[in-house]
Amino acid sequence: MGLAEEFGRDRVFNTPLTEQGIVGFGIGMADMGHTAIAEIQFGDYIFPAFDQLVNEAAKYNYRSGGQFNAGKLTVRSPCMGVGHGALYHSQSVEQFFMAVPGLKVVIPRSPIQAKGLLLAAVRDPNPVIFLEPKILYRSSVEHVPVDDFTLPLSQAEVVQPGSDLTLISWGAPLYSCIEAVNMLRSPPASVAKHFPASTRNVNIEIIDLRTILPWDRETVTKSVAKTGRCVIVHEAPVTAGAGAEIAAHIQQNCFLNLEAPVQRIGGWDTPFPHVGELFYKPEAVRIADALVKSLTF
Amino acid sequence: MAASAPRLGQLLASTRSVASCSRTLAAPTCSASPSSLRLAATLLTRGISSTAAANKDGDQPQGSLPGHPTSVFLTSLNDSFFDRVKPKTLSGNANAQGGIPTYRLLDGVGKLLPGVTEEMVDIGEAEAVKMYRTMLLLPAIDVILYNAQRQGRISFMMTSYGEEGAVIGSAAGLDGADEVFAQYRESGVLLWRDFSLDHYMSQVFGAEDDLCGGRQMPVHFGSTKHHFHTISSPLSTQIPQAAGAGYALKRTKGREGNVVICYFGEGAASEGDFHAGMNLASTTKSPVIFFVRNNGYAISTPAAEQFRGDGIASRGPGYGMMTIRVDGNDALAVRSAVKAAKQKALEEQRPVLIEAMTYRVGHHSTSDDSSAYRSKQAVESWKQMDNPLHRMRNFLTDRGWWNDSLEEETKAAHRKSVIEAMGRAEKKKRPRLSAMFEDTYRGDLPENLKEQRAELAALVAKYGSLPGWAKELEKHAQGGKDMEQYLESQK
What we know:
Chain A: GO terms for molecular function: branched-chain 2-oxo acid dehydrogenase activity. Chain A: It catalyses: N(6)-[(R)-lipoyl]-L-lysyl-[protein] + 3-methyl-2-oxobutanoate + H(+) = N(6)-[(R)-S(8)-2-methylpropanoyldihydrolipoyl]-L-lysyl-[protein] + CO2. Chain A: Its EC number is 1.2.4.4. Chain A: Its cofactor is thiamine diphosphate. With 297 residues, chain A is α/β, with parallel strands linked by helices. Chain A has helices spanning 3-7, 19-31, 50-56, 60-63, 94-98, 111-123, 173-185, 217-227, 242-253, 277-280, 284-295, and strands spanning 36-39, 73-79, 104-106, 128-133, 157-160, 165-169, 204-208, 211-213, 230-237, 263-267. Chain A folds into two domains: 3-139, Thiamin diphosphate (ThDP)-binding fold, Pyr/PP domains (Rossmann fold, 3-Layer(aba) Sandwich), CATH 3.40.50.970; 157-296, Rossmann fold, CATH 3.40.50. In chain A, α7 (173-185) links the parallel β6 and β7 (204-208). In chain A, α7 (173-185) crosses α11 (284-295) and α8 crosses α9. Chain A starts with a helix and ends with a helix. Helix content of chain B is 44%, strand content 9%. Residues 1-57 of chain B have low confidence and may be disordered. In chain B, the strands form three sheets. Chain B has a six-stranded parallel sheet with strand order 5-4-6-7-11-10, with helices on both faces. Chain B has a three-stranded mixed sheet with strand order 1-2-3. Chain B folds into two domains: 73-427, Rossmann fold, CATH 3.40.50; 433-490, no CATH class. Chain B has 18 helices and eleven strands. Chains A and B meet through α2, α3 and α4 of A and α11, α12 and α17 of B.
């Protein structure tokens, strides 16, 4: 809002309605050394640009021996559920890009995080896909410094330290994770019988992964080696979701420390439905249930 | 193939009749179909009855394009451009017989068409000779590398046969600092810009000093110094990128005199990225020249199965884009069309579409045998009747700028320098093995890549003596020893 008025129409402008064109155009600008911040209206519509992102932006530097690159390109796009977005205004798309060497994929959880990580993404010398959880656009409020600041990419953040279980997530579901931990501590009377006393006062370490690719293996493995238990939560379908990659890495690097199987909680392996979103997304109670399973294994 | 044989035969027959007509149009003894004869007669009548002024203006049609009888030749550059869909403009002008006309300066044997003045050709001896010399370098490289691939010395090759005029003509119409986005059959642009044969061969052989790090298949060139953006295999992806580059160029101080040129084939124009790029360049008013090499085939798919409209040029006005169709085998017409296009792109801050009509004489690539889908005879007759090299050679010879001994000397010198450069490249080492992990990201290597590099280092230390591995490691710079520094003590 107001950027075009402030910086001019040649810097902030409309494009024709073409996602493959928008990303291709952004690559061309970045290739010429200009900073290009492209927007895809919804993450669900990034797929027409998949070829430009995967075959072009990601490989530009490698294939040219570093002569040309698309590093000055940042693609911003809203992502994740919004309550009623159904199939094409709800998707989490990070896992598709997690398999693409050359790209960086970043998802913030709050206004401060969004500003700091976006500025880092724009300045990073590699093409970055910056996915913004749209349900937080108006619901998440905090004091954000007006000054210039950045937060590091490829660094997870321990949001809440703990010693009994590592809970990993990113974006909007992090709030469900916090809710789940609170539910575990004082469950509603109607379901309290499912939360054994032994699980109520545990210390759960909550990690915000923040960067999906290249992700912070060190923070994650260090945490799981300490706690011995891990639950990974994301909104995308479970099969081949980002959680699969993280879980595989944990079993390989924390095998001797694990006290329970790594659990993955995500959307079901269906398209994102219109009605029934409550039962589709990883809500607090589903996460709390997974925490209990892990803690009582 | 059996089912399509009669149709191919028909195509061939009609092609020939039009071809012979076009070649001999100057003489009124054209043995062609009745309609072609009528056309020729009309043209001749017009030619005779037209005034000297009309000839000077050069707007009289001069024969038609082989394989495309509705497209007549125009020699007037200004009349050849159009940017709106109106019955008359889409047909070029009243002379166009319903199809988009083709801009041309030389006839099939390299003579200036009636009405074409030296001023319209606008070229001096040095440049014309350099053009022809560079055009001759392409087949010299093609024949040697094509055979090298057949002998298994390189993995892959794509030749430029038949398109020498389109590629070199366009390169000559540009400034060396104009930005080039290419498909893959435009290495002539690099050669025109004096890209060294050593760099050329190093790319093809994946040698240690390849500017692109030996990572891509042969003929995927790139060079910052030559403003030639690295080629990639996915078709048309460069088209919207060129639009973005044009927009960036427009906003770069000191580059006001430069444009972007973006090459692609008529097959690639069927991709969605063509539509995206054309529309974006037009709406953002970016100085980009889109240069389509319409060579009749996309691998085995003939143009007739690629589109139903009047080629690619007919799409230009739909995007509000200034457009011209040019005879791609007339290197001088291509050069002047590109020059004019560049001037229009800069003056009017808008993209221009050029459709160069040519013919892919060679196979699509070394992985293709084109005789499986078109007759060798058709290719041969095309080479004979409409050859960009012959036309340029005759043009030069008529002016006394070229002769048989220069021809022989140049061909021998080209052959020698190509063979020598190939010999040098073949002896070069491949890049260090560890370079395989580098440049995936700019900046620090991410942890996963460090781990994987260490994993390969351990494997090389363990199994490097396997005959298969040892033989391959030997080909790399440092023989794979560079990996040792990445060995991690076992956990």
